Each structure stands twice: as structure tokens, then as C-alpha cells.
Amino acid sequence: MENVIFPFLVLVVGLFLLLMSGMWVAVGLSLLGFLGLKLIVGGGLEGMLGVLQLSVIENFVLCAVPLFIFMGNILLRSGIMEKVYQGISPILSPLPGGLLHTNIVACAIFGACSGSSVAASATMGQVAMPTMKKLGYNKRLLYGSLAAGGTLSSMIPPSIAFILYGAWVGESVGALFIAGIIPGIILASLFMAYIFLFSLIHPGSTPQQERFCLREKLFSLLHVLPVILIIFAVLGTIYIGVATPTEAAALGASAALLVSGLYQKLRWTVLKESLFATLGTCSMIFFILMGAMSFSMVISMLKIPEALSIWVVSLELGKGTVFIAIVFLYLILGAIIDPNSMLLMTLSVTYPLMMTLGFDSIWFGVCMALFVETAAVTPPLGLNLFVIHGISGEESISTVVLGSFPFFIMMLLLLLILYFFPGVALWLPFRLMG
Fold this sequence. Notes:
It is built from 22 helices and no strands. It is mainly α. The protein has one domain (2-433).
């Protein structure tokens, strides 16, 4: 362990200084990878970086990323998700908490079509916030439900976090998708339970909602049906084994175009904006992937993961202690680094360690998706917090942060459930895929 401590500290401090300087994460990781191979590892291996980076973006599994993002952008910009929100509202609004429950369920549905946390919060925020503010909903509860509801996109398949994790560690993306279903439903239920209890304790926080007859509720579901069919086209084909995640992503993107066309919403401006938005997001993700591969190569060449695993095992700390340390590590990193960067730049170290200690690879993938969710609502750099703050028009972001904090606690509660009952994540994939 002693012979890798100094190079490891040099890499960590160097990465921290580069990120704190304001340099893009992808550039910082690539630069550190190049310098690490040139100055620390040696042997002229830096020439291999181009080949390795090309191998990353040629990964067939990662083709699903732009397709899922494009599918979400089409549904967002064509206004289909607004109709989904309107279709859910009559069913959930009579509950204590009213339209706040609609925020959570609509975000979950959008997550099942996109996998983008920020897009889910932005979409539902623009749809729901003006009306709910006029009706007099508690602002903290409103902002928190939208910021936290968007994070469900990281857990409920198809999740970009699962695709990146599966491609990086060599795990089945289909199995990860299946593993995220029950935890995602539990997390959405925890959010709704909190809203329900808060509304009962503080009746004035949520106004009385109009009640709808059964016929009106059934008619409103027609707005949700097309999106449900898209979700089935994506997830159903994966679960019954007739399509890979990448093929299912292509099918989902095609279905989104078809639904938008049937609604007469597929205009040239919608298509152009969706393509450009997809290009921007995917460029960021793939540049980070290439940089993370460079950094990971240095870590691997120095055999840091192996040395760290041996050292931790020799301490005989116990799995629970190590897991708590990993949780605190990701909570801290989530506060200062964007979620995708956090996931990719740490897996080369944390994944071998967790596998050495006997944790399940699929289970850890679900935990990683949950860490990505917490990062989205953790100040000072929680992206969903800034999105909701921008839409709200509030002078201070503190109202959004305070409103999101109880939902953050619900995420930690799910983390405890996953640790003590790993079958919550593992039962369904083993049931369906053996």
C-alpha cells in the first residue's frame, strides 16, 4: 500500500485543484490522465489514450444514451408530458396533498421515458408551478416535490446512470433496469407518503381540490395511454427478451416520434430543438466518459484499486463500516461535482473495493443511481435545485433547498432499506433473468 499512497494523493489533489480552478470536468480528467501516464507511470503509454477513448464511444451499449435522451426531448418539446400531467391530476388531486402527488407521479412517468433528472424537474416545474402557486400551495413543499420528483429519473428505468454504470463495469444494463423498478416505486411512495402526512398535519399547506366523477377520471387517462405504450415499447421488449437496451431505445425514440405525429405536434422546430438538445447533452456525457477512461487507466496501471482493497480488508472493518464510508464519500462528492462525473471518476476505485468485500454488482448499481439522485438535490451544486429556483422566480434558493431536504432524507431512508434488505433490488432481476 505504501508504494501507491504518494501517486494516489498526487492524482487526487491534482484532480481537486483542476476542478476547483473551474476547468471542465472532462478536460481535467483527460489532462490528469495524460500527465499521470507521462510523468508517473512512464513507458510511453500515453499514446494508448486515443485508442482507449475511441473504444469507449464505440461501445454499442452506450448508443442507448442519445436515443433515450432524444426520446425524452421529443416528449418534452412536443407538449405530450403536459397532457400526461393533465391526465393524472383528476385521479390524484383528491388525496391530501392534491397536485403535489401529481408532481411525483408525473416525474416518475417522465423518468420512464427519458432518464434525465434535470429535464424531468424542468418540464414538470414549467407545467405545474404557475397554477399551484396561484392555488396557494406551500412553497417549500411545492419546490421540494418538483426538485426531488425529478430525481426519480435516475432510478426508474430507462436510467442514464444505469447505462453508464453497466457499460463502465461490464454489468447487464437490462438487469440493472429491472433492479431499479421496485426501489424506484418505493422511493416515489416515500415521497408521496411524506406529502400525505405533511398535508394532514398542516391542512392549510395544500388547498382543497375539485373532485371528479369516475367517468372524468377514466377519460383523463386517455392522455396517459400513449406514454404508457411508449414505456411498454421500451421496457417490455427488454424484459421479455426480444430487444437489447439499445434496440429498445431506438424503438422508444421511434414511438415518441409517432405519438408526437399523431398528436400533430411534430413540427420542424420541435425536431430541431430536440436534436440540438440531445447533441449538447450527449457531447457532455461522452467527453466525460473519455476523460474518465484516461484517469481510470492511470489508476489501473498504478494498481491503486487492488492495493486499496487489500488494505481495507486487512483492517477488518466490516462491510457496514465500509459502506457508511462510501455513502459519506458520495454525499460529499455529490455536493461539489455533477452526478455523471461523480459516478464515472470514482467507479474505478470504489467498484473493485465493493466487489472484494462481497457486495453484489447489480445491488451496487442501484445504490449508485441513488447517489446520483441525492447529488441532484444536494447544495451547493445540486442541478435540480437551480432548475426549480430559476423557474420559481424566488430571490433566494434557500426556500428550494429547505423544501428538498425532507425528500433527501427519504432517499437516505431508501439507502438503509437497500442495505438491510438487498432483495428489494435483487429479487426482481433474479426472478426474471435467473
